[in-house]
Every structure is written in structure tokens, then in C-alpha cells.
Amino acid sequence: MPTISVNRDVLFTELGRTYTDDEFQNLCFEFGLELDEVTTEKQMLMKEQGDHAGAGVSEEILYRIDIPANRYDLLCLEGLVDGILVFQGKKAPPQYTLRKNEDCHSLHLTPSTAQIRPFAVAAVLKGITFTKESYDSFIDLQDKLHQNICRKRTLVAIGTHDLDSIQGPFVYDALPASEIKFKALNQQKEMTAPELMELYSTHAQLKQYLGIIKESPVYPVIKDKNGVVLSMPPIINGDHSKITLDTKNVFIECTATDLTKAIVVLDTVVSMFSKYCANKYEVEQCKVFAPDGTYELYPKMQCREEVISVDKANSYIGIKENGDNLAALLSRMCLSAEHEDSVLRVRVPPTRHDVIHACDLYEDIAIAYGYNRIERRAARVVTAGGQQPANKLAEQLRHECAHAGYTEALTFTLCSREDVSTKLGVRIEDVPAAHIANPKTLEFQVVRTQLLPGLLKTLAANKKMPLPLKLFEISDVVLQDSAAETGAVNRRRLCAVHCGRAAGFQFVHGLLDRVMTLLRQPWDPATGYCLRQCDDPAYFPGRCAQVLLRGQPLGKIGVLSPAVLAAFDLTNPCSALEIDIEPFV
């Protein structure tokens, strides 16, 4: 869930009244939001970078507000203020108008763009007036969209330019890196694309985007009529066309691998900031020509109509309101509605791309009505709830492991192939692991088949802690099983590791005996549990035993091999225990 930071005093000025923190928190709740924190910029920097980071930083009060991930229209101060004022009935929902396109502002795509980012959309905001606050909000909205719907610029990259500093029509091309040379934003000299990629490889923010195009044979680039480079998406804009507080006309372009997302992003940006245009809420369309010569006009700014049943809305939400009242509730959520017979005709504006189904409208009705006003009622279906036996047993064992002096860890379910194979002395082909088809990182390639690697990585990350380190985890592993419907099964396991200056069976054997006593399993090969010596490359030769339950393998216990410790960057001896607890459920 994205979080936005807004200046409290600026927010209250825009809302037309002052609230206490509790009053504003209640307002956020009524509107379906959450006031996460009241802080200052200085406090935020000190929390992120340490006590020395707050010197000379503003101490104005900031509200950090959690926004639903699909409400792109609330990711900036402008959208938040408009939404709250409409919700309070102090303002009518904005009505957007589209201005006729000008051919000189058209954007032409070349065939080579299909190799990397095949889509683009564009728009123009005319006669815009920026203040310091609105300018910062304009930049911040782009960043929030990049992190949210744009998926860190992989799906969409936004470029904004001072239209008066460039000349259209514009060209969106894809060229070999060596053919691209321009002065990037806030740089002092022109550089080639490879030089820029090298420069930004250590940049705190931009280095995370380099991989999107780095291996491509061509890099995307947008130029104006005179060959001036506007941007090299999704990395950096050009310095020549950067917007400032004095900018009056803004050219906005979005390049994308997903056209639908690009349309949503462009609609959101122009909707939020067209309020600062000379003609309020007016947006100029641009012709975007495809490589085959056909064109589309953007932004779309489409309004569509949804029809929902009054009776269904009341039934699903649990209220009894007439159609006119339901229409009024929807209007408070920027959704103009009219009641006709037994249905509501709802006009969904271009700012509400999150509305894709009737249930979204029911949710907005419930928010506007007030969740706390909905009458509680008994369930119409007889049900019986209860804790799953495996979860109940796991909770009981967690308490006992903690009583034995072990600290619980919660590790990642996914891990690398090496974690469950090479580092433990076995081949990945011999491990019944469920592999991720398209892993995004080398750290998360398979679903773990043992809990042990996760605990060893936790030990490695806490080597500065005083010895001994005693960790345990009770969680699921996943094993391939051709007989299962999904091809894999979950198994609930208990794993414990003792890391100290010496290693031996006694350190974890005591925990095993305690667990078995609580599970009422006697030390008996026939009716209870016992140990049997075995060999495992993960354990020290001659110091590994198999835990048996009535003759069936339950897990292993032993002293870990020095090779395994070295693979996980550990220097102190470790003893480990890992058993399956599902037979006891």
C-alpha cells in the first residue's frame, strides 16, 4: 500500500479548515484511508539515515497517509484534496474537457521501438502555473506512479518537458547505444548512452532502472523536430527540456510495454494537474502515430457508464436505502449517478480507473455510507470455525521451544538453488524442489525443501550477537510429489540450530527429547522414537543420525559439516535438528 507525505498546513489550507490530528484521522477513516503517522521531514531523515541527518531540515508537520494501491488519483495532494472536498459535499466532481490537438505536438513512433518499448502516449498542458508546492507535488506524483502502477518503470516510464524549449512534431525512436548522445538532466556535459549507463550505475535512485534496457541492442530515445533529445526512457530526461517553476506549457510523454497502463498513467497525471492550467481542467490531446502511419489521440479521458441494481447494492452491503440516496452516496465518491426505476446509472470518470466491476461501486457506496453505520447482523449460514490441528500443534511447540531457550526465526519460503543443493553438498537434480518458472532474482529460484538453510543464513546475518545463538523455526517446506494434484505437497517441519564455540549432539538432543516427551512418544524403536546413525553430506561424518518414529524416518539430527558452515559464511560450530511434525497431528 503506497504512502504519501503531505504538509499538514498546506493540506488544511486547501481543505479550507483546520483539524486536530484525531479529527483528521477520523476523516481519513470515513473516506477509506488511514493516517499512518504524524511526523516531520527532519524526523523521517533521522529515522532513515541516523541522528546526524536532520541538520538544517524543515520541521514542518507532515501527514503520512496510506492510500489504497488502486487509487492512483489519491497519490498527490491535488487528488487527495479534491477527493475529500467532493466527499464532504463542498465541491462538485471536476469536469474535464479535451482541447483539439495541434499537429506540431504529434508523436511519431519508428518501427525499431517494437524491439524494446513498443507503445507511447502523449498530452499537453497549456498555460500551467506552478508554485513550489505544486511543482514538488507534480514530481512526487510521477515517482509514486513509477513505483506503483508502472512497476518501477518496467511497464511505463513518464517524461515531462517544457514545451516552449522544444519543437514538434516529436519522434520516438530506438537506436544503438553508441548513436545516442545528449546532455542528461542536471549534468554539465553531453554524454553517450554507454557513458550515462556507467555514470548512473552507482546512482542511489537510477541504478535500479538500468537493467530494464541494459542488455537490449537498442535504447529508446525521444527527440524533437531539430534532433534535441527529450529523454532516454526509462532512465533519464534531457536537461534541455527540463521543467521549472517558470514552465508554462508542459509536454508529457509515456513510453510503455503495456498500453493500458500507459493510458491510465497519462490520464492520472493530466487529471491531477490540469487544475493549474489557464483553462481549468482542460487538456490538449496529441496525435500518436504508429509505425504503419495510423494514429490515435491521447489522452483518452474516457468516461464510461456502469449500471447496477439498487436491490443488489442494498443486499450486498447490508443496508436499506432508496435509489436516490445510493446515487447521492456514489456522487460523494466522485462517481456521478442517476436513479432510474430499480437501477443506478453510474458515470465513471477518467480519474477512477480502479472501478472495473459492480463490486467496486458497492464498496464505494459502503465507504460513503460509513462502515460503522452498517447494522451488525447474524450470519445467515450456520458455520463452525476452529483452529487447524497442524496450526494448533505448531503454536504449542513454538512455546516449548522458546521455553527451552531458543529464539524463533521467520525465514523466506523461497531460496536459491544453491541453498538447498550445492551448499548442503548435494546436486540440485537430486533435490525434490519446486522450481520457479521465471525467477526475478537469484535469491528466489525454488521453494525451500528444508528449513535449515534459512536458519543458517539468519545466523550468518547475526554473527555479531553473543554466543551461543539458538534459533528455531516451525513452518512449511514444499516437496515435489507426482501423486499430488498440484505436483507438490506442503510439509510442516520443526528445525532448530545451536551455534556456539563447541558442537555436539547434546545441544539439540535435549530439545528433541523434550519435544518427544510433550508429544508422549517414548524412547522405544517399536512404539516411539529412536536414533539411527546415517550419512548426510550436510553433516560431519560420523556425527549424523536419523530420527525414527516407529521405524519410519522423521528427520535428522547432528553436527554440521565445516564445508556447509563455510558455504553459509559461518565460523563457529553448529548442531542442527530438523523433523517433520505432521505425523503427530
UniProtKB/TrEMBL annotation:
It is an enzyme of class 6 (ligase). It is found in: Cytoplasm. SMART domains: B3_4, B5. GO terms for molecular function: ATP binding; magnesium ion binding; phenylalanine-tRNA ligase activity; RNA binding. It comes from the Eukaryota. Keywords: Aminoacyl-tRNA synthetase, ATP-binding, Cytoplasm, Ligase, Magnesium, Metal-binding, Nucleotide-binding, Protein biosynthesis. It catalyses: tRNA(Phe) + L-phenylalanine + ATP = L-phenylalanyl-tRNA(Phe) + AMP + diphosphate + H(+). Its cofactor is Mg(2+). Tetramer of two alpha and two beta subunits. This is Phenylalanine--tRNA ligase beta subunit. It comes from Trichoplusia ni.
